[in-house]
Design brief:
The complex is a heterotetramer, with 2 copies of chain A and 2 copies of chain B.
Chain A lengths: L6 E3 L2 E3 L3 E3 L22 E6 L12 E4 L2 E4 L7 H15 L4 E5 L4 H12 L4 E7 L10 H4 L2 H14 L4 E4 L7 H10 L5 E3 L3 E4 L1 E2 L4 E2 L5 E5 L4 H14 L4 E3 L6 H10 L3 E4 L1 H5 L3 H15 L17
Parallel strand pairs in A: 3-16, 4-7, 7-8, 8-9, 10-15, 15-16
Antiparallel strand pairs in A: 1-2, 5-6, 6-14, 11-14, 12-13
Chain B lengths: L3 E12 L4 E7 L1 H6 L5 E4 L11 E4 L2 E4 L5 E9 L3 H7 L6 E8 L11 E7 L6 H11 L3 E7 L8 H6 L3 E6 L6 E2 L3 H10 L6 E6 L2 H13 L4 E4 L15 E5 L5 E5 L6 E3 L7
Parallel strand pairs in B: 8-9, 8-12, 9-10, 10-11, 12-13
Antiparallel strand pairs in B: 1-2, 1-7, 2-6, 3-4, 3-7, 5-6, 13-16, 14-15
Helix pairs in contact in B: 5-6
Classes of the chains: A alpha/beta, B alpha/beta.
The structure holds flavin-adenine dinucleotide (2 copies), flavin mononucleotide (2 copies) and FE2/S2 (inorganic) cluster (2 copies).
One FE2/S2 (inorganic) cluster binds next to loops of chain B.
Chain lengths: 306, 271, 306, 271
């Protein structure tokens, strides 16, 4: 059976629903040796500010049951060096590039987005208003409905690229944030970013991360992320990009059936960097077995118990 | 060469002591491509706990009768749940092994000497290094420290390959009583300045720092194998950073899985 | 070394900080065969409404990575049968009994609490304003600051028993709920209840739980729970009772160092019903090794990185 | 007797087919206390994935030369990650085993006959039951169905203990072609009403339901061993409920780990 894996996010058509999650795949090029970047639905690159950033002191990650905490602190090369040093090669390799945009202020979000809008090969902007690991910006915008509306509207005005605000799960009602983003002109929303969390070394009585707190990702969070994706998909009309602990084709399908049009995979790529082809063939097999012709037919297809 | 991921069969698991074992894995593609100082990432379970792979230096590159590389071994110290699973592995089990990863040691050739300095499980990268240096006929010494004589392994193996051993134990049961930096410093002192040498070092961080400092003081280049907690081993996550000075002398964080794990001691900035 | 494990929650002195988590230990008596109930700091019994409740259709639980979802739906015998049928035996066994009180309305919370206040042997009330699994009541109260204040104040007026509102983690700022509870007269707060979550069977495309959603518990949530306990302990003066994924003595210590005065253990008792003595001796060993005389000296003792 | 938790050594793990194996566990305390129909909860990993224990009927109670119970076995079908770990267990491994748990079967004595009805891995509680009934000299029959002849196990074992076998396979490769309810129904039809018998049944839910219905139609009491997903096995979590009619006929949920897993077919209310 020939199955159709194409999905659409705003004006962007992706050859399949699988994207790398920001911050878990470097700038994509690190993986060019072992993964055909053009075979991914999209490559979402590490969060970028206007300027370079050092990030936090190590230790930056710590493992937890079926998950991990990270407090990288958005170490990065800044948007200018990214455009100069990484984009040419990404274009050459045929990657569909989505840039995760960060900011310490509304102006910075706008400025970075404006710069990227003129760059050939940037396919969409993921607006990171949900990073739990930085002092200013990030989650501050993402935990307040009017700030969310404001920053999305402001960026909307400077770009025609598909705009995908990335939502934090650290709120009472994530779907109201999805709605605010939709109302502000977003083309899609992506979720979840990581859960604010911490771990303490009981012998030293110090946090295991130098930054005290970090973000929880990985299979541990999957059931919460699926619930949130489901809630958002019920409430908004724009596509939802789902993530949080996806590690198998069944997990991808679970998110899509819950309502995700596309998905991102982060932590699981650390465990298996070759996961992409496994996921793709797993989805294809499932579709053949269940006689599903187009992967979009699965989106939001969950039936409730009577 | 691009790293590969093998579902490697465990060929042997030899326990050296309660805390140390050598795990031999059938991994021809990795064995053929590995250069000394590189590492592999091993999955210790098929489930999600522990979730992440664990990094290990390639200890030996093992060859068949014709000399074709067919297996690697790792020297593994028991410290937590991941290494506990590896300690319990038996011949016939299968483990996902990703590699080779990272930058290897730069090899020095005669007339330069190679001085390896190992603390505890820091011995791990030096078996493979010894074989490569032997192929160049580089004279080698190993300064090797442990808590006790029962924590020193593979001494015969190194001696059989012409490596001169300088041992140290913290309890004085073998070699110098105290840290391995003592015999190293003594040797550096008496080494004529016109005889070139490079220091290779692997071990706990305070030791790396001390040895890099000794190298600096005595004007000897050092190659330091660092150990940071690693999420991916491939440059994806930025977890494994160490601070390094760039050409302009400005320190910044670089990923030790990509730019290391081996760094020039001169470049490393210690916190 | 002789170590002192006593902790104090309002007027209640517990012989050690270990309590069973509500809903994970039946009415306590189910375990009387294998656990000396009087050896626990307290036995927190299953959530009780005024009347009996059927609970949800099975399947009621499903396993997830390092965790589980439950949607029991608070099946229970109601407060009257509890007082009649269970309390005498609990008293006889010397258990310190804390009752988890539920309600579909403010009046029901008040009425159940009032009834319990006159019952000999009830040591405290844990006010369950955080159950994610029922339609009315529960989490509705716990996700709104003024409702939280209102229900705690109302119950405060009818009881002198130590009053411990149990908070939900499904909010943006759990510490503001702790503060609202403190202001309303609570003697302590306990947290976390479970995270609202779901899992879908991709083959049938139906939720794995009959109730669609359930609550996530177990080791998976521990890092988030520790963070929340830490935040609450920073903000309020009343004791915090911490829980969420505790499965070892080190986990108990982690919560206490983060700021918990006492802890509850739920899911881990399913895996190891004999866990209580293991935890106690683990704590004692740690205290001896680190030369800590009183367990209360550990509470909130985390040091930050400089 | 109060259940105990043993760190039981695996004595043998015998694979019967690709999907079935028998795991023998050294568990003297549990072996001595178990009555047929009771179950144990087994931890399949020391980590947290899979997190929960898995319930298994006690298959055989094994005794030493003097007849002292020293081990139990479980008949295990491979269905997911937990059973996969048990399938991979080897002699010498240790597993935490909690038991015995739940209500056992009521044993019937002559002149009553005992008819056991098993579907697939539903055979599990009937080895122990057979031994107990043999001690009472109760005449026993086993109606045993599987997908194929290769899914029927321990036939000799039951025959050697005087159990009359009535087999059925869905592919017709052994016994009646079709479901095991067919030979059961045929036998019920020809059984004189004045010869008492009790039906014991274990297997997939549709089969339990069908057999309980047959019992009702033919006026025969049945004892049904149910299988619900279980969180704790001890009555703590209320996950494992089945609907049962009480004396007044009102249906309500009861915990199958405490009030079951064996119920009277008459009492069960099927959804
Ligand atoms: C490039 C590299 C090469 C290594 N080579 C070897 C080797 O050849 N032989 C060997 O035995 N070990 C080696 N290690 C260390 C090894 O990876 C850790 O001991 C292992 O990951 C611990 O896993 P665990 O689950 O047993 O313990 P965990 O519970 O994960 O950790 C136990 C303790 O070890 C620390 N730790 C965990 N991971 C690392 C890490 N990656 N680096 C340093 N400390 C860590 C933790 O902070 C903790 O204090 C190497 C590490 C790196 C980065
Ligand atoms: C009282 C009792 C006695 C049992 N006796 C035996 C036995 O003797 N031999 C045997 O092989 N199995 C027995 N089972 C079933 C066994 O417990 C499950 O097959 C096992 O828990 C599955 O674990 P898993 O991780 O391999 O698969 P999972 O991934 O947990 O489950 C795979 C599938 O099996 C279903 N399942 C999971 N747990 C149970 C459960 N407790 N009951 C029914 N279905 C379940 C799941 O819904 C899923 O569809 C018994 C169950 C109960 C309740
Ligand atoms: C090490 C690490 C770094 C991350 N960096 C970013 C980032 O720069 N920008 C961002 O929006 N999300 C970042 N995230 C969050 C992931 O993109 C993703 O939302 C989250 O990890 C959940 O998905 P997962 O469970 O598949 O990893 C990061 C996650 C990890 C683990
Ligand atoms: C099966 C089950 C039933 C529960 N029932 C209740 C309940 O009746 N009342 C309540 O306040 N919390 C209930 N909880 C939540 C627990 O008390 C506890 O807050 C949560 O499980 C987190 O702790 P744990 O990770 O140690 O299980 C229940 C949890 C589980 C797993
Ligand atoms: S380990 Fe992920 S970047 Fe180095
Ligand atoms: S399995 Fe927990 S009550 Fe039955």
């Amino acid at each position: 059976m020939n199955v159709d894996l194409c999905v659409r996010i705003g004006s962007l058509v992706l050859k399949n629903p699988l994207m790398s999650a920001s911050g878990c795949f470097g700038y994509g090029l690190e993986y060019a040796d072992i993964v055909d970047l053009s075979s991914l639905g999209a490559v979402v690159v590490k969060g970028l500010f206007l300027n370079e950033r050092e990030g936090h002191q190590p230790p930056r990650i710590v493992e937890t049951p079926s998950g991990m905490l990270n407090a990288i602190g958005l170490q990065g090369i800044g948007v200018h060096r990214f455009v100069r040093e990484k984009m040419p090669e990404l274009r050459r390799l045929g990657a569909v590039v989505i840039v995760n945009v960060c900011g310490s202020s509304l102006d910075e979000y706008v400025e970075v987005s404006r710069i990227l809008s003129d760059v050939e090969g940037v396919a969409a902007i993921e607006l990171n208003i949900s990073c739990p690991n930085i002092k200013e910006g990030g989650i501050q915008f993402g935990c307040n409905l009017s700030s969310t509306h404001e920053v999305v509207s402001a960026v909307r005005r400077v770009t025609t690229l598909p705009l995908i605000p990335k939502l934090t799960p650290n709120v009472t009602s994530v779907s109201s944030f999805a709605r605010a983003a939709e109302e502000a002109g977003a083309d899609a929303v992506s979720l979840v970013n990581t859960f604010l969390a911490m771990a303490i070394d009981v012998d030293t009585r110090r946090p295991k991360l130098s930054n005290t707190m970090g973000g929880l990702s990985g299979p541990a969070i999957r059931p919460i992320a699926v619930r949130m994706v489901y809630e958002c998909a019920q409430l908004v009309r724009i596509p939802v990009v789902g993530m949080g602990g996806i590690s198998s084709a069944r997990d991808v399908l679970e998110f899509m059936i819950a309502g995700a049009t596309a998905v991102q995979i982060g932590t699981a790529t650390f465990v298996d960097p070759f996961i992409w082809s496994t996921l793709r063939s797993g989805i294809e097999e499932y579709m053949a077995r269940h006689n599903v012709g187009r992967v979009t037919d699965l989106v939001g297809s969950m039936e409730r118990w009577i | 060469m691009a790293p590969i991921d093998l579902d490697a069969e465990v060929l042997r698991n030899t326990h050296l002591s309660a805390g140390y074992h050598v795990l031999v894995l059938a991994a021809p593609g990795i064995a053929a491509a590995t250069r000394p100082g590189q590492f592999v990432m091993i999955r210790t379970t098929t489930g999600t706990d522990p979730l992440l792979r664990r990094p290990f230096s390639v200890f030996e590159i093992l060859r068949d009768a014709d000399g074709t590389p067919e297996a690697i071994s790792i020297l593994c110290k028991l410290v937590g749940p991941g290494t506990a699973r590896l300690a319990g592995a038996s011949a016939g089990d299968r483990l996902a092994v990703l590699g080779p990863l990272g930058k290897p040691f730069d090899l020095v050739a005669p007339p330069s000497e190679a001085w390896m300095v190992a603390g505890g499980v820091g011995l791990a990268p030096f078996a493979a290094l010894t074989e490569s240096l032997a192929a160049l006929a580089t004279p080698t010494r190993l300064f090797y420290g442990g808590r006790s004589r029962t924590d020193l392994f593979y001494l015969d193996w190194f001696e059989a390959r012409g490596v001169r051993l300088d041992l140290a134990t913290e309890d004085g049961t073998r070699g110098t009583h105290g840290r391995v930096t003592a015999p190293l410093e003594a040797a550096l002192r008496v080494m004529p300045a016109d005889r070139p040498l490079t220091i290779y070092v692997c071990g706990p961080e305070p030791m790396l720092k001390a040895v890099a400092a000794l190298g600096r003081v005595h004007g000897r280049p050092s190659q330091v194998s660092t150990e940071q907690v690693m999420g991916c081993g491939l440059g994806g996550c930025y977890s494994c950073v160490v601070r390094v000075r760039d050409e302009s002398g400005t320190p910044h964080f670089v990923r030790s899985c990509l730019n290391g794990p081996v760094f020039r001691g001169e470049d490393l900035v210690w916190e």
